[in-house]
Amino acid sequence: MIHVLVVDDEAPARDELIFLLERVPGVVIDDTADNGQEALRKILKLRPQVVFLDIQMPDMTGLAVCRELLTMLKPSELPIIIFATAYDQHALEAFQVNAVDYILKPFDEERLQMTMEKIRRLLSRPAADSLNRILALLEKPRDAKIPVELNERILLLNPQEIIFCSITARHVMIMTCNEEYKTNYNLCELEDKLGFLRTHKSYLVNPDKVREVIPWFNGTYNLLMADDKASSVPVSRTYLKEVRQRLNF
What we know:
Domain HTH LytTR-type: 146-249
Number of helices: 7
Number of domains: 2
CATH class of the largest domain: Alpha Beta
Pfam families: LytTR, Response_reg
CATH topology of the largest domain: Rossmann fold
Shape: globular
Number of strands: 15
Strand order of the largest sheet: 2-1-3-4-5
Helix content: 25-40%
Keywords: Phosphoprotein
InterPro entries: CheY-like_superfamily, LytR-like, LytTR_DNA-bd_dom, Sig_transdc_resp-reg_receiver
Protein name: Stage 0 sporulation protein A homolog
Largest sheet: 5 strands, parallel
C-alpha cells in the first residue's frame, strides 16, 4: 500500500485529488492538510510515503515546506513530493526530472495514473537526493521577466535586477537598485517564480543582493540590501531558520 498525504489550501482541489487517488488501487489517504505548517506537522506525525503538495499556499509555499523537510528529517525518512500546481507545462520544465513529478490543475485522471507509476518506481530510491535536486533547480532565478507598473506603463524586469519585494499599503512592491515598482503578483507567486528568500510575511529578498546581516532584538535580524538606499529588511522568527541556512550565518 502507498500511504499519501494531500496538501492544498483550496477544498475543491483537495477533494478532487482525493477522489481521483481513491480510484487508484493500492493507495491509502492517511490525511489532508490545508496549509504548509499543518502539512509539516502531519508529515512528522504520520510519515506518509508520498505527499501531494500544493505550491501556492497563504502561509508558506510548497517549496518552503520541502526546504523545511530537508532540515527536519533524515534522508531515509523523507517522503516523495508530488507538486500540484496551476502552472502550464512550459513553465514547469524544471520539474521534469526523474525524481520528483508534478500534476496540473484541474487534475487529469490519466496523468495521475502516470504519476502513480513513477511513484512506485521512486519508492525504492533515496528521497533526499530527489528533493535536493528539484529544489536546486527551482531555486535558480527564472529567465522569464516580471511585469511591473510605473506611471501607467508596463515594464518588464529581469529577475537579476530585483533587490527585494515587499507589501506596502496592500500592494506588492518590487525594489530594484534605484526604483520601486508595483506588481500584480502576490508574494507567494513571486517566491515561486523567482526562487527568492522569504524573510518575513511581508518581505521577499534576492539572496544575492544581501549586503550585510545585522543582529536585532530578541534573536532576530535585519538584512541590509544592495540598493541605492541601503534598505533594511526584517527577518522574523518564523523564517529565521531558513534565512540562516540560505545565507550561511
